[in-house]
Amino acid sequence: MQLNDKIYIAGHRGMVGGAISRRLKTLGYVNLVTRSSAELDLRSQADVNEFFSKEKPDYVFLAAAKVGGIHANNTYRAEFLYDNLMMETNIIHAAWKHGVKKLMFLGSSCIYPKMAPQPLQESSLLTGPLEPTNEPYAIAKIAGIKLCEAYRDQYGCNYISVMPTNLYGIGDNYHPENSHVLPALIRRFHEAKEAKAPSVTVWGSGTPKREFLFADDLAAACVFLMLHYDEKELVNIGTGEDLSIRELAETVKEVVCYEGDIVFDTSKPDGTPRKLMDVSKLHKLGWKHSVELKEGLVQAYADFLHKKHMVAL
Ligand code: GFB
């Protein structure tokens, strides 16, 4: 990937696509192509084909997706399956039709079976049933992996798939119900601090364990793999460290400087008990994360405060 190659970042307005754009710009890539969802509906095959025939990108980062936390995944099941299938199918097929040199597909750790051995190895794909709350999203992401593999097998396309762990960072979604746990807790603890509320409610039992990677670290890993990885097998991207939701809530409480109590609402779903990534393959390839959770949380909280100041959330 040369500095003046044309690179399309699908989903550049999202947290992940935004971080990939920043990373590429920092490294000196000057020919980035982007379209907002208002300019290009990635669910429309005709529009995606027209865009690829006009722009003819050399490289594609497929970071566009309908995403959300456990509640959104479980509620908008049809959209999570349909939108994600359409976007990835249209982009991967158009990439093949219009001669893209290399494409990276971004999946998710939820593609692995709910009860797969921990840490999750790349070889656990399709070895057991999925976590029900995010099965539609996971099925769409598995289809994306299989599309990349099939276009590689049949047409020799250099399409690679990476599986990020749970992500957070600059430009996250802080919606009270539809967001992921980390941004949801930042908001809830902040609002409780402002309101001097005696306690903050955290969903579930607090016992599930999750791993969190700062989005700018993910972006650095994606660019690294785009430059150095050409194989069919997927690659996990994470830190290799996890903590319980209770520990996460305590850490967020400390970063936000909230002084009340934490209570758990066990009527809300826990989701998968644990999904720690095995990152030995990524480490062997030569990449390791650099932002630790506490440091990333401080940056994420600053981002939340900035966003809150700019727009009413
Ligand atoms: O981040 P999260 O929604 O996604 O939830 P998943 C993680 C855990 O945090 C669950 C608990 O055990 C939740 O019950 N939790 C506690 C909360 N309080 C909250 C809260 O206020 N909001 C949220 N959202 N959770 C998603 C998948 O699963 O992970 C997606 O649904 C995707 O498909 C994504 O893979 C990375 O880790 O459970």
UniProtKB/TrEMBL annotation:
GO terms for molecular function: GDP-L-fucose synthase activity; isomerase activity; NADP+ binding. It comes from Chitinophaga ginsengisoli. Pathway: Nucleotide-sugar biosynthesis; GDP-L-fucose biosynthesis via de novo pathway; GDP-L-fucose from GDP-alpha-D-mannose: step 2/2. The gene is fcl. This is GDP-L-fucose synthase. Belongs to the NAD(P)-dependent epimerase/dehydratase family. Fucose synthase subfamily. The record marks S108, C110 as: Important for catalytic activity. It catalyses: GDP-beta-L-fucose + NADP(+) = GDP-4-dehydro-alpha-D-rhamnose + NADPH + H(+). Its EC number is 1.1.1.271. Keywords: Isomerase, Multifunctional enzyme, NADP, Oxidoreductase. GO terms for biological process: 'de novo' GDP-L-fucose biosynthetic process. It comes from the Bacteria. The active site is at Y137 (proton donor/acceptor).
